[in-house]
Specification:
Layout (H helix, E strand, L loop, with lengths): L6 E5 L2 H10 L3 E6 L2 E6 L2 E7 H8 L13 E5 L3 H13 L3 E9 L3 E7 L5 E7 L8
Parallel strand pairs: 1-4, 5-8
Antiparallel strand pairs: 2-3, 3-4, 6-7, 7-8
Length: 133
């Protein structure tokens, strides 16, 4: 059986999320009342209005100003992409909480919070320089 994975993220302002992720160049896959989908790192990510997501989960939405649900990581094709998208994120109103930097000598990445406080990182992995165990 073939299965597909997608993420559903609660958003306060659907139009603000649409503008943010569109300005970063992510492809829209679904646009319907109360939600919009994007392809991010080959994974469908649905931005769903908070009230609608609470109906689906029958659970309160987390307050991202007080904690993180998880960290969403997206691979970058190269270091230049990390630098370029960092500028786009800032221009689009996202919060860069970790500027682009070398990590462990074989990764280069940055970290951001989107307009709803969801935490993401964009990271280039230089597999050839990954330490061998």
């Amino acid at each position: 059986m073939e299965q597909e994975l997608w993420l559903n993220l609660p958003v306060k302002d659907l139009e603000k999320s649409r503008a943010f992720f569109t300005s970063l160049g992510f492809e829209t896959t679904r646009d319907s009342p109360g939600m919009i989908g994007f392809i991010i790192g080959k994974v469908p990510v649905m931005m769903v209005e908070e009230a609608q997501l609470q109906q689906y989960t029958q659970h309160k939405v987390s307050d991202t100003s007080k904690g993180s649900e998880f960290l969403i990581s997206v691979s970058a094709p190269n270091r230049a992409y990390v630098d370029e998208i960092t500028k786009k994120i800032k221009d689009a109103g996202g919060t860069v909480y970790s500027e682009p930097q070398e990590i462990q000598g074989w990764m280069y990445g940055m970290a951001l919070a989107d307009p709803d406080g969801h935490r993401w990182n964009i990271i280039y992995l230089d597999w050839e320089n990954m330490p061998k165990n």
